[in-house]
């Protein structure tokens, strides 16, 4: 089995709350049934950047892998990488060359031109995927945020030499996605794929720790406390089906020690507090090691 630090494939997008830095802890907490090859199906209802998926697919043999995310644009990029990686790489190479040849003012204008193009035309799947990756690599903090109209609205980020095309990694991602089933919908839609030989890793939009750390607008809707409660009920339903479950979320106790929101929602399951470097508010002073929750039913 590969050491996680030598894993070749990594997420092709920067994603708020990405799990790459928590991967060693997640690996230590994987169910023994997966390690013993008794798990046949792996499912992620909120795939995001896919850091955990890439580790799983490179280290374990599974009969079926299902990746889902409510962000349809993100899943469309996964589909393009899965089926048209050569065309995607060719177009990204052109965009990277054009962008890096510009001065600061030119880059900023180019960014907003691509943002407008992305928001106004999503009929060309490869062009849309190119713009998605370009914007992700050059926008402020690599965020994906949309307004109520579904328009991407993250501003320009000032990076001196951003990597827009990582050809080797994109090809590795394409290999990892071979035979993977890709879906875009609500998390509850994966229920019919789950049985007692399934392992599901749930990484929903985190509950905001404060008003300035709200990164839940990754599609036209928001993932609010009612959705967190609905997810907890779904977790219990999957538990009754005999599936092995792991869920990540923020720990409200970082801000308020009396906030038992998740402790109450997931009472009866194993709740571990693990630590990650996160920016918990917009002014940068909130960046540091904070607790996050890892909730399992085993």
The CATH topology of the largest domain, please? Rossmann fold
Main sheet makeup: 7 strands, mixed
Poorly predicted regions: 1-6, 213-217, 280-286
Number of helices: 10
Oligomer: single chain
Alpha carbon gap, first and last residue:
22 Å
Give the C-alpha Rg.
19 Å
The figure for the number of domains is: 2
Overall structural class, as computed from helix and strand content, comes to alpha/beta
Which band does the percent of strand residues land in?
5-15%
Shape: globular
Summarize the amount of helix as a percent range.
25-40%
Question: Secondary-structure element sequence?
Answer: HHEHEHHHHHEEHEHEE
Total strands: the figure is 7
Strand order of the largest sheet: 3-2-1-4-5-7-6
Q: Write out the CATH superfamily name of the largest domain.
A: Vaccinia Virus protein VP39
* CATH class designation of the largest domain: Alpha Beta
Average of pLDDT: 90
CATH architecture classification of the largest domain = 3-Layer(aba) Sandwich
């Amino acid at each position: 089995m590969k050491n996680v630090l030598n894993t070749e494939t990594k997420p092709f997008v920067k994603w708020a709350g990405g799990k790459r830095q928590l991967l060693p802890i997640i690996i230590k907490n994987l169910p023994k049934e997966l390690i013993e090859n008794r798990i046949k199906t792996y499912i992620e209802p909120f795939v995001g950047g896919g850091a955990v998926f890439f580790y799983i697919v490179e280290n374990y043999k599974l009969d079926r892998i299902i990746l889902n995310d409510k962000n349809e644009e993100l899943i469309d990029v996964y589909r393009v990488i899965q089926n048209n990686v050569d065309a995607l790489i060719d177009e990204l190479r052109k965009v990277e060359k054009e962008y890096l040849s510009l001065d600061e003012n030119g880059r900023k204008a180019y960014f907003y031109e691509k943002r407008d193009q992305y928001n106004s035309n999503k009929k060309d799947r490869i062009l849309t995927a190119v713009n998605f990756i370009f914007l992700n690599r050059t926008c402020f903090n690599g965020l994906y945020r949309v307004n109520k109209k579904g328009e991407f609205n993250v501003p320009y980020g000032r990076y001196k030499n951003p990597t827009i095309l990582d050809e080797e990694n994109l090809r590795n991602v394409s290999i990892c996605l071979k035979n993977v089933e890709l879906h875009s919908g609500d998390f509850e839609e994966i229920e019919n794929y789950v049985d007692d030989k399934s392992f599901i890793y749930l990484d929903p939009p985190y509950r905001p720790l404060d008003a300035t750390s709200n990164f839940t607008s990754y599609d036209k809707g928001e993932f609010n406390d009612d959705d967190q409660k609905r997810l907890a009920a779904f977790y219990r339903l999957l538990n009754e089906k005999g599936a092995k479950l792991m869920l990540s979320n923020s720990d409200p106790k970082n801000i308020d020690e009396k906030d038992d929101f998740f402790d109450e929602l997931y009472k009866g399951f194993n709740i571990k507090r693990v630590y990650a470097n996160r920016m918990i508010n917009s002014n940068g002073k909130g960046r540091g090691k904070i607790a996050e929750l890892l909730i399992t039913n085993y």
